[in-house]
Amino acid sequence: IYRFNRKNETFEDVCEYVEQLHGLSYRVGQVLCCNHTDRVWVEYVGFGLVGFYNDSEGNILCYNLVGHPDVGTSASLLSEDSEGNLWAVSNQNSIIRIAPDGVVSKVGDTEGPIKAHTQAGSRMVYATDNSLLLVDTQSAQVVRTTPFHYDTITTLAASSDGERVYVGTLRSGLWGYDVATEKVEYFHRGAL
Known about the structure:
single chain; 192 residues; mainly beta; 4-stranded antiparallel β-sheet; 1 helix; 18 strands; 52% strand; elongated
């Protein structure tokens, strides 16, 4: 992975920098996220997460979460909320929040692997095969878990106002979930 340093207008090898942290060879995973402050988060398979950013001099600095007990050895589904927190799912099926100052909070565990996520207003919404979890972004608490018995969930997308979450399923089409009332509504049957 390379990043462009705007200060000196050069490309820098981020992996080489990370290898210097522990003297280990890291293999880049499937997760890469760049937040609004141009901090780049990278998952390193078998080790965890590292976040990179530039200081005022243009030097690479990092949040090294390799070996962090709440992050685990890999992470997925990275996204940033409107307050600048980074949200991730650990390989231990835990939802974690990384605050802008680098503080890691374990929000909760799920009964199975998390398949999809989206932000709906002030809530992050996570989906396992057959449930939706709503997490308040400010308190970092699971607000509610709603069973979803209609089919296996594959994708989520939130409406622009954050009041509805669209739920894509494996075989039964598209559903709508009202965040406030928990009402589930059928939209379209069949694979999309």
